[in-house]
Amino acid sequence: MKQARWKALIADDEPAARRGVRQLLAAFPEFAVAGECRNGAEVLAALDTLTPDVIFLDIQMPGVDGFDVIKQRTVERMPAVVFLTAFDQFAIHAFETEALDYLVKPVTEARFAATMKRLVNRLESTSISPRSETIVVTTTRGATVLHLNEIDWIEAAGNYSQLWVGTRSYFLRESLQLLEERVQQHGFVRAHRRALVRLDAVRELRRTRAGALLAVLGSGVRVPISRRRTASFTAAVRQLG
Fold first, then answer.
1. Mean pLDDT across the chain, nearest whole number?
2. Does residue 130 have a cis bond before it (omega within 30 degrees)?
3. What percent of the chain lies above the pLDDT cut of 90?
4. pTM for this structure?
5. Residue 238 — φ and ψ, nearest 5°?
6. Rounded distance, CA 58 to CA 129, Å?
7. Of 145, 138, 128, 42, whose CA–CA distance to 94 is shortest?
8. For domain 6-145, which CATH number applies: 3.40.50.970, 3.40.50.2300, 2.60.40.1930, 1.20.1050.10?
9. Interhelix angle 66-73/40-50, nearest 10 degrees
């Protein structure tokens, strides 16, 4: 049995909802439930005494609500935040607080597992912090916030950009050229005319039999490097070490 590595705090005014989160977390033994809170005032006190790594936070609670908790605590002093709410209209506001995810009740096991995978990746990586820049994308299930440090590479898709996180992709209505201006200071380098690659995601540079250069990413994806950009891309990877 895995030993708990991180502490979780559950905040919801409904006992059944708190119990539901506990049941979902039972499938992830690396997380121990450090405590439960019924309102925002209890959350503010628990954050100091329990120092959780993640909080599953309801928005509408009596007295101090979820957003007020973050406002009083400040984003910089919050652990990773996963909003769990029965309402979907607060999603954009939630992502403005740099929340890791926004889950609408009832939450399926598959959706919760996807959130936990991202949470583990964030907690395990010292390069990902609550202050890292984020991008909000729209999916069939609502809005999702992506940290730039999670995105492996980006490719052009007409007037859209396709953002790849492992083997999963998200579409953003923004051209690759405009997006490049936003992400290049976060370690993204042009691989060819239609692709940007995050240097931290590169695991190997490999030559094909024809002599073309490929960037092999941690996900196994191979992104070709154009001849024009081979020298600069290779130098950037070597500089990163």
1. 88
2. no
3. 56
4. 0.54
5. -65, -40
6. 22
7. 145
8. 3.40.50.2300
9. 40
